[in-house]
C-alpha cells in the first residue's frame, strides 16, 4: 500500500469531552471550549489536521483507531485537566510507544500527578463555563509556538524513553494505520 505523502500531519488530541469536574478543586470545566477555542485552532494554524476521539468516524471499535493514532500521529496533545482516567491512560500509552512529539496541556489550578510533575506542560486558565478571550489568544499563540518547537526539535519528551536507554518504540504495520487513515473523514 502506498502512503499519500501529500497528506497533512496529524495531531491526535487526548482529552475528556463536555463538562467535567476536577476531583480536587471540585470546579467544573467545559473541556469542549478548550478544544474548540484553543487546541483545534492552534493545531490547524501550526499546519496539522486535528482529530479528537469523538470525531473518529469508524464503523468498528473506536479503540482500534485510537490505538493507531496514539502510535502513529505526528503529534499528540493531551489535556489532563480534571484527571480524566481515559486521558491519563492514553497519555501513558503514547509515552510508551512514541519517544517524542507529545504535549501535555492542563488548567493551571490543581496539583499535577507525581509521575507527570517533571514533564513540561502548557498551562492555561479556565473559568469553568468559558475561557476569557485574552487567555484564549495567549494560550493559542503559546500552543502554536510549542507545536512548532516540538515539531522542529524532535526531542524526547516521553519519560520512559528519557530514563530507559536503547529502548525501541514498537512499529505499527503500515496497513493497520493506512486502513484507518484512508477511511477517515476529517471534520470541518
Notes on the structure:
The protein is α/β, with parallel strands linked by helices and 188 residues long. The protein has a single domain, classed as Rossmann fold (3-Layer(aba) Sandwich). The protein contains six helices and seven strands. The chain has helices at residues 31-45, 62-72, 85-97, 133-153, 159-163, 174-182; strands at 9-14, 19-21, 28-30, 48-52, 75-79, 102-107, 121-124. A hairpin with a 6-residue loop joins strand 2 (19-21) and strand 3 (28-30). Helix 1 (31-45) packs across helix 4. It starts with 8 loop residues before the first strand and ends in a 6-residue tail after the last helix. 32% of the residues are buried.
Low-confidence stretches: 1-5
Average pLDDT for all residues: 84
* CATH fold topology: Rossmann fold
Main CATH class: Alpha Beta
Topology order in helix (H) and strand (E) letters: EEEHEHEHEEHHH
Q: Strand pairing plus helix content: what structural class?
A: alpha/beta
CATH superfamily: Toll/interleukin-1 receptor homology (TIR) domain
In CATH, the architecture is 3-Layer(aba) Sandwich
Q: Classify the oligomer.
A: single chain
Biggest pleated sheet? 5 strands, parallel
Total number of strands = 7
| Radius of gyration computed on alpha carbons | 16 Å
Strand order of the largest sheet: 4-1-5-6-7
- How far the N terminus sits from the C terminus, by CA atoms, comes to 27 Å
Share of helical residues: 25-40%
Overall geometry: globular
Write down the domain tally. 1
Amino acid at each position: 500500500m502506498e502512503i499519500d505523502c501529500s497528506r497533512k500531519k496529524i495531531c491526535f488530541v487526548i482529552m475528556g469531552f463536555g463538562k467535567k469536574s476536577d476531583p480536587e478543586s471540585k470546579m467544573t470545566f467545559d473541556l469542549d471550549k478548550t478544544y474548540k477555542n484553543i487546541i483545534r485552532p492552534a493545531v490547524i494554524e501550526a499546519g496539522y489536521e486535528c482529530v479528537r476521539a469523538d470525531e473518529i468516524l469508524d464503523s468498528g471499535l473506536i479503540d482500534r483507531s485510537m490505538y493507531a493514532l496514539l502510535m502513529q500521529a505526528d503529534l499528540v496533545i493531551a489535556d489532563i485537566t480534571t484527571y480524566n482516567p481515559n486521558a491519563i491512560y492514553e497519555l501513558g500509552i503514547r509515552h510508551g510507544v512514541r519517544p517524542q512529539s507529545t504535549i501535555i496541556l492542563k488548567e493551571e489550578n490543581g496539583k499535577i500527578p507525581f509521575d507527570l510533575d517533571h514533564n513540561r506542560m502548557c498551562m492555561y486558565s479556565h473559568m469553568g463555563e468559558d475561557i476569557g478571550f485574552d487567555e484564549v489568544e495567549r494560550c493559542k499563540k503559546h500552543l502554536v509556538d510549542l507545536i512548532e518547537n516540538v515539531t522542529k526539535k524532535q526531542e524526547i519528551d516521553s519519560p520512559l524513553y528519557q530514563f530507559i536507554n536503547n529502548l525501541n518504540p514498537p512499529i505499527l504495520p503500515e496497513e493497520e494505520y493506512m486502513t484507518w487513515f484512508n477511511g477517515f473523514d476529517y471534520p470541518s
